[in-house]
Amino acid sequence: MFNKILTKARSLSPWVLHFDCGSCNGCDIEVLACLTPVYDVERFGMINVGNPMHADIFLVTGTVNHRNKKVLRNLYDQIPDPKVVVAIGSCGLTGGIFREAYNVVGGVDKVIPVDVYVPGCPAKPEAIIDGVVLGLEKFKEKAKMAACMRTSNSVEEKP
Amino acid sequence: MTTNQGMLILAGLVAGPLLGGLIAGLDRILTARFQSRIGPPLFQPFYDVIKLFGKEKVVVNVWQAFCANAYLTAASISVVLFFLRSDLLLILFIQAVGAVFLVVGAFSSTSPYSQAGAHRELLQILCYEPLLIFVIVGIYLQTGSFKIESVYAWNHPLLLKLPFMFVVLSFVLTIKLRKSPFDLSTSHHAHQELVKGLLTDYSGSFLALTEIAHWYETVLVLGFCSLFWATNPAGAILLVGLTYFLEIWIDNVSARMNWRWMIGYGWAMGMSLSLVNLVWLYAR
Amino acid sequence: MKELTGILILLPFLAALSCFLIKSSRIRSFIVLATGCILIISSLLLIPHVPFAFTPQTVFGLGVHGLIQAPEFILMFAILYFGCKHRSLLVIVPAALQIIFVAWFEGFMIHGQKTLWPAAQALYCDNLSLIMVMIISIIGSIICFQALPYMKNHEEHLHLSITRQPRFFFVMLFFLGAMNGLVLSNDMIVIHFFFEATTLCSFLLIGHDGTEKAVRNSVRALWMNSLGGLAFIVALMMIYRNLGSIDMQQIIRTPPGAGLSFLALALLCLASFTKSAQFPMQSWLIGAMVAPTPVSALLHSSTMVKVGVYLVLRLAPAMQGSFLSQCIALFGAFTFLSAAALAVGQSNGKKVLAYSTISNLGLIFACAGLNTPESITAAILLIIFHAVTKALLFLCVGTIEQHIESRDIEDMRGLYAKMPLTALITVMGVVMMIMPPFGLLLGKWMAMEAAARNIFVIVLTAIGSALTAMYWARWAGTLMSDPFAGKFKLEKQPVVTWAALLSLCAGAGILSISVPWLYAGLFTPSMSLNYVPPYSLNNGILENTYGVFAALPLCLIAVLGFLQSIWAVRGATKARVCSPYLSGIQTAEPRVFVGPMHQLVKAEAGNYYLSNIFGERKLTIWINLAAGVLLTLIVGGAL
User: Which CATH number is A54's domain given?
Assistant: First the structure.
């Protein structure tokens, strides 16, 4: 019973941590545009928190390079469960046009598991909001999976 | 303990989270409207707190758990005592217990954001505590007692005799509600300076506890404000509503100031206004 | 009862002598332990007999007064000797003047007559004396117990070839006897003798280590306290001329202004202020922190400095309603504020404790000056709880200092990692200093409510109270500033140390819970002679017409809240541990992050000491100036 309320609350109160992993800032500007009055994601209860320990949804832009992949990993580890990772922009998906560069790792999912991919260069705010809302669906799945793990006591890998 | 007292205690315990949460929700909606946005639903703070309780437990220092719980206990006891119409000075000291534990909890993490936030919080306490004592003493000098029940027994609204004290109280309110220009130690979303300052290393259920304690404190300080028009419930609601609206308005039009300005301006203004009010009282 | 009084006053002197003469450290430890236990039991056994007054049997035809005449002169010549030895004119002049005045007083003024009113007794014990005796005997003994392992460690640390412990324990035990004698005497000249005896003890103990700094500070303590003693004897001479006796109870019962010169009372207050290290005479107490920590705990927080407040509290009924009393209230409140301000700017742990002591003593003086039933109750509460809690904190700092070899708060950062239980006890001590439902806050609450009609006192007290919270919370936070993961591993300390620390901690807690019974049993009777009982007591709730403090319910809730929070901590030990937020560049080591060029950088943190505003050097000058003005007001107003 409490679990139902909890799952509902999770999807109604997604706190977002935004991290720029070497992006040209194009996608970052679009992410911040979502907070402005034009798009106003606070309607969905989304707040931009600066601290991974307060976050639920991890928005990552930019290709990842060999310096900030450790930071990305650290931040991801510091976010308490349940968490959802959203990779934004073509750089975040696969490295975009910078893919061949020597310092580029090439996409967020090479370092941390990603749940939602939002393509675009830059990705439009509407697409970003769509992506986050899709991510909220993941919360329900993860909660169900956690409940299954509790009942069946079997070890399952997270996607 | 009579049933009446039992009811009041229950009301105090319940009113804090309920009223406080609704007021916090109203705060966010009003702020959003000021900024030409729509804002979250009214019950958003409740969704936030419930979600936080469901997060994985992560700690930096296990004593954060102690401090968060102690903060909540102290804040709730101060509201309960307020509902029981107890002694104002005692309520102030109990509320201070919570504030100090919050600071110690923040100190227990070595993150620079946490430490700087903790120091700023101490400076905030240093600023508002004397001012709050002056307001309480002003009420005492007018009604003859520190007990809240004597405020209700007084036939006139305190606001008529203690207008400047009310201004000083609203100053304290700005600091307690963590509104600009005095949101130095930690602030509401999107006003970050030290990441989340004092609350940086609190997370999950402990952050939820501090949030609920903050709601209790909001109810407490707004309750203080309501004492200034204790004769008429409608008047009290009007006064509190107007004051809160003004706080949100000030929050949206001002920038964060530094602690030197806060203490300098606060004490200078607080002390002179208090003195003027008290001298005025005695000259009549 | 007479035997108990004899034990309380005379046994420490005998024990002190035997400590000095006996060379074996084991026997010495046994003597200290035994004396302490006997003192504790005797003071507790005294409770049912109070109030009482009696004159002991004459020895060789000499009463109490006669018996102390010779020791008095020996004492003053000893002080003169030390002044000459250290070539300090500031000591020599007051000491010489005191000898002259006492000789004049004894020889010409008294001239063999009685110094007491016909029906009065030489020894008098009411509830206030009983409270002081219990503080001295119980807390003093616990501190002496802890001094045993402390001094052993101290001397090992200093690589001393010849132990100086016999001298140390001689003076400590002698001091306990002198204090007991002081609070049980009715004859002011006897009180003066013990007053000066404590001065000499303080001088000997501050200079114990024999370093240049210690000697310098001990001489400073000696001359300042000698000035106080000089003021005392001049006041006595004036009182004798007015009243024909120097009987404490008689002085108190004289209606204000009826033949008792306010100037004499002002001089006695001045002597008290010196003894309690109020501004501008505070530098001796700050300098006295060079002494070993048991000395600081015993003399300079719990007992000797309480002599000043004890005297003023005793004299308070004689000053009711006078301008002198109001000035004392203002002066006390001013000290409360300024000492708190100075403590904010300090990072030396013992100096913070010293300033906090001066601050609390100022508050007690303010309560005595306000002279209403509520404020006197507040003063007594503050005396008890300050003595216990401050002794605890000093012992904690002493233990910490021996472990980490520093007394700076910055070096105690994250002490929880190295000394978990000591850090927790220190935090507990800090909590007991500033939070309800503990007795010290109850006293402060009472003091503020009593002061609320006096605009200056309440303003000073309000700001002082906020500053107090700041420096204590900062210290408590610094101790716990350690990202903690792993099991709680108890550090090793001698059993006596744990016993001393835990007993004081538990004692403060138990006393706080028993405040309703203390109030009914100890305070109300001790005051009913001169003041109406201020509070009514129902179900452990103290209430009067304008204030209410639910002492017992709050204690209960505090205990429940504490247990619930501890249970939450146990739950948190199973939580995932995360390093503190360092913008994602943290490493496995909690304070270290990856900096430029992949260099590891340690994140340093420091406390705000605000030395531009609260720095000791600058601020002390202004404070001393203002204090001087206030003191002139006190003495001038009394003229």
Answer: 3.40.50.12280
